[in-house]
# Entry
Amino acid sequence: MSDDHSSRQGILSLTIKDKAVLYSAYMPFVKNGGLFVPTNKSYELGDEVFMLLTLMEEPEKIPIAGRVIWVTPRGAQGNRTAGIGVQFSEQDTGANAKIEEYLAGLLTSEKPTHTM
# Structure
């Protein structure tokens, strides 16, 4: 057995200050919620991760434990950003609720509206 991936990857830090960025990173289809986290570190599916999320103007960082449910490697086709999809643990439904509060209007309108 190799110790490479059992060693902690450290704490991921993610700062999102813009609703559009939050909307593009958020994964509402994932049970308990999830976020795409840009990173060049290598992870494998199922790795447990811990992140500190700074959201909009919140004074406190939100600690989130989760696990890797997808990996976009460096140099992926289509110039996609390297990173990981992190599914929140069941204990982090509060973080998910807070994200959904910020995105309330955006998540309900699946289709773009053309009214101003």
Summary: The longest strand covers residues 62-72. The beta strands are 11-16, 34-38, 48-55, 62-72, 83-88. Confidence is low (pLDDT under 50) at residues 1-7, 111-116.
